[in-house]
């Protein structure tokens, strides 16, 4: 398999079929205990763990207010 300059690869049709993957589906790449990468179909309601964590840190201030706070310009 060849990786494009944008880091993309084509999942072979036989693998897509065995996982039941359709256009627009999401997949997960998981590193197992042996150091191998396993591909799995993501559940429909699965959220990106980074987006999930980021959603916990909503700020109730503008970017200017945040910069002022970070710069300690009270």
From TrEMBL:
Sorted UniProt keywords:
DNA-binding
One Pfam family it belongs to? MazE_antitoxin
Q: Which SMART domains match?
A: SpoVT_AbrB (SM00966)
* InterPro entries in alphabetical order: SpoVT-AbrB_dom (IPR007159), SpoVT-AbrB_sf (IPR037914)
Ranges for domain SpoVT-AbrB: 1-44
The record ties this protein, via SUPFAM superfamilies, to: AbrB/MazE/MraZ-like
> Which superkingdom heads the taxonomic lineage of this protein's source?
Bacteria
NCBIfam families for the chain: lp_hng_hel_AbrB (TIGR01439)
The protein's name: Type II toxin-antitoxin system PrlF family antitoxin
Species name for this entry? Endozoicomonas gorgoniicola
Top-level taxonomy: Bacteria, Pseudomonadati, Pseudomonadota, Gammaproteobacteria, Oceanospirillales
């Amino acid at each position: 398999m060849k990786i494009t300059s944008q880091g993309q690869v084509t999942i072979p049709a036989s693998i897509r079929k065995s996982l039941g993957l359709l256009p627009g589906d999401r997949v997960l790449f998981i590193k197992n205990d042996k150091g191998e990468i396993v591909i799995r179909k993501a559940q429909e309601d699965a959220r990106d763990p980074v987006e999930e964590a980021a959603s916990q840190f909503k700020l109730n201030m503008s970017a200017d207010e945040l910069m002022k706070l970070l710069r300690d310009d009270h």
